[in-house]
Structures are given as structure tokens and as C-alpha cells.
Automatic annotation (TrEMBL):
<comment type="similarity">
    <text>Belongs to the methyltransferase superfamily.</text>
</comment>
<keyword id="KW-0489">Methyltransferase</keyword>
<keyword id="KW-0808">Transferase</keyword>
<dbReference type="InterPro" id="IPR025714">
    <property type="entry name" value="Methyltranfer_dom"/>
</dbReference>
<feature type="domain" description="Methyltransferase">
    <location>
        <begin position="59"/>
        <end position="180"/>
    </location>
</feature>
<dbReference type="Pfam" id="PF13847">
    <property type="entry name" value="Methyltransf_31"/>
</dbReference>
<protein>
    <submittedName>
        <fullName>Uncharacterized protein isoform X2</fullName>
    </submittedName>
</protein>
<dbReference type="InterPro" id="IPR029063">
    <property type="entry name" value="SAM-dependent_MTases_sf"/>
</dbReference>
<dbReference type="InterPro" id="IPR051419">
    <property type="entry name" value="Lys/N-term_MeTrsfase_sf"/>
</dbReference>
Length: 221
């Protein structure tokens, strides 16, 4: 579901829903939510887009997941033989609970770190693939007019993209799974400071979600 401004609306029990969409930008909201919630998937679970993601990732890939929350995406990837996984989240509550869950299930190889996607603590060019599922959408919750988003929104989104572009290896791939329609996302993805190409697919029954594939250093002039 989404509201008229193009922002996501959760189908979820009311005790974890924020009083307003802007609360999604508050780290305290997420700490409180994750302390009570064990699992939630934004934009469907891995099985719905597995056929898309496996076209762009392989068992040798080093993968960074942004904003892992309490999703089971990394477990799905691991089950498909992709074991060099690093998951980050800004919430220390989410990180600690994710660590405990993965250890209890025997996923000892997956790294889970507390980190800010706007200031990634990784060296340049260290990941083959970066994935975000619904995390970028949070940055748009108070964007105002989707055709002309607020300066603060633009700054946050561009900071995120710069960090992703920086940590990707040459010919690395950024995968973005989102509600955001191409006419709203392309102005960001196609900014001249980035060297990636942009394409997308859709998935979902009835309501379509967007699966963007951005490949670094293969952008056409």
C-alpha cells in the first residue's frame, strides 16, 4: 500500500505504527519498535523476488544489506549459497536481536553491524553487491511534493547513494527494492556524479513493487 504522496503505508498491527510518517526518521521509534517486534518484511519476502536477485548475484559475491531491521532477507540469500554477507542497521536493538537470531539458527558467518548508511564505515570498493529493501523509502517520508522533494530529502538520498557508489567495487551492483516509481527515482539514480547504469523490473500481484539494478562503471554516455 502507499499514500497519495507515494510513501509506503504499512499493513501492520497498530501497536508498532508511528503517530505520523515523519516518525520513521526518528531512531528512537525504530529502537522501540524492534524491541517489541520479532519479524517484519517490507515489500514482500525473499521468495517473491528471488528470481530477480539471483540474476545479479552469485555465491562468490560480497554483499552488503542496508537497513536490515528484523528482515529475513539475509537468511534467504544464505540459503542460496551467498555467504559473504554483511548486514547493517542504525538501531542497536535491531542489530543485537539480529545477531542473536542468526546465531540461534546457525548463521555464524553473517556479520551484523550497527552503522549509518549515510556514513558507511567501509573502505572504498569493498562490496560486489549492495542491497536495500525499503530503507531508502524512509528518507522520502517527509519529502513533500514527490515531483519536487524538499532540499533536506534530496541531501539525505544523495548522501546515501554516494556512500553506496563509494563502497561498490568496479562493476559492482546496487539493488534497490522499493515503492518508488521510476519517474521519482531516476533523477537521483541518473545524477551525473554516478557512473552506474539503471534498469528496473517489477514484481508482485495486483500492486507492483520496483526492483532497480544499478551497475557501476557501465553507464552509457
Amino acid at each position: 500500500m502507499e499514500n497519495l504522496s507515494g510513501n509506503p503505508v504499512e499493513s501492520h498491527k497498530s501497536d508498532v505504527l508511528p503517530a505520523s510518517a515523519s516518525a520513521y526518521l526518528d531512531p528512537h521509534y525504530w529502537d522501540d519498535r524492534f524491541s517489541h517486534e520479532e519479524h517484519y518484511e517490507w515489500f514482500k519476502d525473499y521468495s517473491h523476488f528471488r528470481h530477480l536477485i539471483l540474476d545479479h548475484i552469485n555465491p562468490a559475491s560480497s554483499v552488503l544489506e542496508l537497513g536490515c531491521g528484523n528482515s529475513q532477507l539475509c537468511e534467504g540469500l544464505y540459503g542460496d549459497g551467498i555467504t559473504e554477507l554483511t548486514c547493517i542497521d542504525l538501531s542497536p536493538v535491531a542489530v543485537e536481536k539480529m545477531k542473536q537470531r542468526l546465531i540461534s539458527k546457525g548463521y555464524k558467518d553473517i556479520q551484523v553491524l550497527e552503522a549509518d548508511m549515510l556514513d558507511l564505515p567501509f573502505a572504498n570498493g569493498c562490496f560486489d553487491v549492495v542491497i536495500e529493501k525499503g530503507t531508502m523509502d524512509v528518507l522520502f517520508v517527509d519529502s513533500g511534493d514527490p515531483w519536487n522533494p524538499r532540499v533536506e530529502t534530496v541531501d539525505r538520498v544523495m548522501s546515501m547513494l554516494r556512500q553506496i557508489h563509494r563502497v561498490l567495487k568496479t562493476h559492482g551492483t546496487f539493488i534497490s527494492i522499493t515503492f518508488g516509481q521510476p519517474h521519482f527515482r531516476r533523477p537521483f539514480f541518473s545524477n551525473s556524479e554516478f557512473t552506474w547504469s539503471t534498469e528496473w523490473r517489477t514484481f508482485g500481484d495486483g500492486f507492483h513493487y520496483f526492483f532497480y539494478i544499478l551497475k557501476k562503471d557501465v553507464r552509457e554516455c
